[in-house]
Histidine ammonia-lyase
Amino acid sequence: MVMKVASLAQGVSGVRREVIDCLLALINNDIIPDITEKGSVGASGDLAPLSHMTLTMIGEGSAYVDGGLLPSNEALERFGLKPIKLKIIER
């Protein structure tokens, strides 16, 4: 997640600041998305793991907190965080 923040923070990926802030909140609160061990097939091989990370960011899927696995919405709630809303920003 730290590497994803570093990449997105360069400002060329077309994501809202809210996405980066959400990732930082996960890192700072030690909320670890439940990501599958095997990646996806493709050129980069990161589509499946990133989709699982994003599930936690939107309050879906599950995440580890203090060594236990919780539904992501409960993990976020525990730290007073709200799931981000996916949307398209038109220019």
